[in-house]
User: Which sequence fits this backbone?
């Protein structure tokens, strides 16, 4: 299973939430689709809290 976040609006995720998401035994990847540079930077920061592979998809 993969978690895909299409970031249409500007928001941030509490990085602690990723620790709960990673407890899902069949999670293999997390992908973020940022719409602008600010969203990309925010997602890049959040990636520091993730053990699972993180993929950035740039539109």
Assistant:
């Amino acid at each position: 299973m993969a978690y895909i976040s299409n970031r249409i609006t500007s928001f941030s995720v509490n990085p602690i939430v990723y620790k709960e998401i990673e407890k899902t035994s069949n999670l293999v990847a997390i992908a973020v689709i940022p719409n602008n540079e600010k969203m990309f930077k925010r997602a890049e920061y959040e990636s520091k809290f993730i053990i699972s592979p993180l993929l950035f998809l740039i539109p």
